[in-house]
Amino acid sequence: MPAPVDIAPARGKLGVLLVGMGAVSTTTIAGVCAIRKGLAKPIGSLTQMGTVRLGKRTEGRSPKITDVVPLSALDDLVFGGWDIFQDDCYAAARTAGVIEPSLLEQVRGELEKIKPWPAVFDRRYVKRLDGPNVKKGRNKKDLADQVAADIRKFQADHRLDRLVMVWCGSTEAFMTEAPSHQSVEAFERGLEENDPAIPSSMIYAYAAIREGIPYANAAPNLSADIPALVALAAQTGSPLAGKDLKTGQTLIKTIIAPGLKARLLGVEGWYSTNILGNRDGEVLDDPESFKTKEESKKSVLDYILQPQLYPDLYDHLCHVVRINYYPPRGDNKEGWDNIDLVGWLGYPMQLKINFLCRDSILAAPIVLDVALFLDLARRANMHGIQEWLSFYFKSPVHAPGLYPEHDLFIQLMKLKNTLRFLRGEELITHLGREYYD
Ligand SMILES: NC(=O)c1ccc[n+]([C@@H]2O[C@H](COP(=O)([O-])OP(=O)(O)OC[C@H]3O[C@@H](n4cnc5c(N)ncnc54)[C@H](O)[C@@H]3O)[C@@H](O)[C@H]2O)c1
Fold first, then answer.
1. Ligand 1, residues 17, 19, 21, 24: which to mutate, most atoms within 8 A of Cβ?
2. What is the distance of C-alpha 7 from the center of its chain?
């Protein structure tokens, strides 16, 4: 048996810093408060409900994940964050309209205490938004220092032991790597010189990573996924995860597509369309923000289906993704998928999926799990990209030269094997010959 990894205990309070107090953040915070009071169950959260099999199938050992690795208890979480609007977390949750008012009323006191700090924001990167609660600074370096000062004050005010940060802000305009993203020195020079290639999300990420705080990105914009911030994380010991929470249509896609490929059924076309009426939908109505999202949503099929290995089945796949902003639906997104399949002898078939989901209800347990697992990673001295958290993301961050793993079931196996590895338990390969020897 391998030796267990040394993990510092989850003692004291964990501060969860959320950038953006919109639908996802407020649903996460209100949900945790409701669960703490016994008003609801943490459905969808692996850290709260999941188990992990240890040893052989005949041993009957499947403890809860919380009994396998030391995770912060929900009672020890303290939330804080930034937004361009001044609404406290209760008012923001009412605006988001995800959780019904009667449940929100029961956690109102806790939520009203969470008032967002002024944000680092520039409309250049999110055209459809504007708000009054915004920091002013000499340059981007000064703004990063102001974010770090907010973090330190929050830590001192609440006597927090440790922190994690999750970007739950709006999707920023599409961007590719620029020269100032290539090294820590170039990035810091870019901050001083107000380089336009450094959007707001990178300023928060830099402030957190410089302090050694774990950082995750719930949105598809680059944020910490650049060589400079990955290198900084290696220096400061900060674990990283991202990008873009795997919810809704892409979650279903990464459940269905591995199954079709497993049975070698061809796919000629996959047409996905959505209607969404929340603020996220409004931001994504802007073509530049939509392009960031589109890239994130479209890449999954290429990697799962591997057309280079199966040209007869997937080489000419036509994959189309649309999002339409449709206010009457609010956060209750509706997605339609039409999949044109090909079977034995080339016979065509069709599969139609109509998913009436609740976006932030699917996203909130992910934010909670990612925050708790990143804090675990920090205490286990695992820094940099945490590929074992790919399970939660549409565009998983990965080492250069490696293709990302999108198959939900491989991702889950990787996550659970990482937990086994941390505890010095046997990794499970599912070979199973020993049962028949
Ligand atoms: N809901 C989901 O299931 C889901 C899934 C995957 C990804 N995401 C992504 O997560 C993010 C949040 O989604 P949401 O539904 O909560 O959106 P939302 O529009 O309700 O919330 C985003 C909040 O971020 C704030 N904001 C924007 N820029 C900011 C900045 N620079 N600093 C501080 N605050 C800022 C906005 O004012 C807004 O309140 C979006 O980027 C979305 O694409 C959401």
1. 24
2. 23
